[in-house]
Amino acid sequence: METYNAEMETLSIAEKEELQYLRLKETLNRVYSKVSFYKEKFDKQGIDLEEIKSIKDIKKLPFTKKQNLRENYPFGLFAEPMENIVRMHGSSGTSGKPTVVSYTQNDINVWSELIARAIVAAGGSKGDVFHNAYGYGLFTGGLGLHYGAEKLGAAVVPISGGNTERQILAIQDFKPKGLACTPSYALNIAEKMREMGLDSRDNSLRYGIFGAEPWSEEMRGKIEDLLGIKAVDIYGLSEIMGPGVSIECHVAQDGLHIADDHFLVEVIDTETSEPVEDGEDGEFVFTTLTKEAFPVIRYRTGDIGSITRDKCKCGRTTTRMSRVKGRTDDMIIIRGVNVFPSEMERVLLQIEGLAPYYQIRLIKEGPMDCAELHVEITDELFKGINGDLKHEQILILERKIKHEMKSACLVSVKTVIGTPKSIPRSEGKAIRIVDQRKSGPVMLS
């Protein structure tokens, strides 16, 4: 097994829990003494930090929510004065004030090591050329992967997102082994290669690190087939650190390894807020254990999935989280049925003749909320029917889509089948949901 930090990635359960508890106590003392939000909250609820005797006692502590970050905008949750802050990131989300997070130099150093661990887990190594197509700027993806790859000893191509033909030229000329971007943009790169008359599998790439949006096993299969690589999922959010909170290993591709020495994870029932058993789906809740500038306690991520503590066949003993199955705020209700876009994606990508692009448009039909599922056919099918979207094959395909959606997701949707490239392409996070129930379209990633 190749690891970047074998000691921390192979801790026994007892060693891990002891380390987490010691770091949790340090973090609680930090936030109580340095962040008025937490001091006031703990005092109001009568919380005595001396009663936190183990990591299991974390459930006695209150949750932190995104709204708390917005209410304390911009610097109200910082635990260090500005002279100790070396970087800030932020995200606007879909509404309300942006969230702002900060880092000390030590925070940056820790983050860089965790990304180095992640790249090794993905199959990377020192000396690789690493093509980083995540966006730079306030978004944590670009700079997060950049500094971690440099920490590992890789040569970073800081190309950011967009200008796909330039991306392809850089891949051809610089011969990178690693690719980092959103999964939807990886599809875009592969598609553009084929449009340019290139074999999308004939490249130097060996592994891809994809995240920042939910994606299915079926999407993984498409990307791996199109680019001829191993595709792994990376997870993170700016409120906790950024990318690198967890990542899949290329050996098993079976759950994302959490950096247990820096983050404590819980999974809770979204309605009762009580813990669920390992293996059961719920909302991921994270507590930072080493963050100096922006420590957070029991942060409700809104991301849905499960965890396992079994040793992975790669040899790591870290807690593993499932890939994110959806978000509490992107779950849509179609005629009374709850469904995540990623569930619909899983079904669509198994249907022959469909390209791996889709969009869900929420509309009103009288008093009812309904959904239109917009998909597109492949170039091969389009040529086979001579561009006739009223062809019998299209009618059969439409019936199949409706049947599979009803069987797998229990929803009935209107289906709009379009020509190749009728769905907008992404150079960052894909726009999966367009809410047309209001005065104008609202794009939801």
UniProtKB/TrEMBL annotation:
Residues 81-286 form the AMP-dependent synthetase/ligase domain. GO terms for biological process: phenylacetate catabolic process. Pathway: Aromatic compound metabolism; phenylacetate degradation. InterPro entries: Adenylate-forming_Reductase, AMP-bd_C_sf, AMP-dep_Lig_C, AMP-dep_synth/lig_dom, ANL_N_sf, PA_CoA_ligase. Residues 336-437 form the AMP-dependent ligase C-terminal domain. Its EC number is 6.2.1.30. It is an enzyme of class 6 (ligase). It catalyses: 2-phenylacetate + ATP + CoA = phenylacetyl-CoA + AMP + diphosphate. GO terms for molecular function: nucleotide binding; phenylacetate-CoA ligase activity. Keywords: Ligase, Nucleotide-binding. Catalyzes the activation of phenylacetic acid (PA) to phenylacetyl-CoA (PA-CoA). Monomer. Belongs to the phenylacetyl-CoA ligase family. This is Phenylacetate-coenzyme A ligase. It comes from Siminovitchia acidinfaciens. The lineage of its organism: Bacteria, Bacillati, Bacillota, Bacilli, Bacillales.
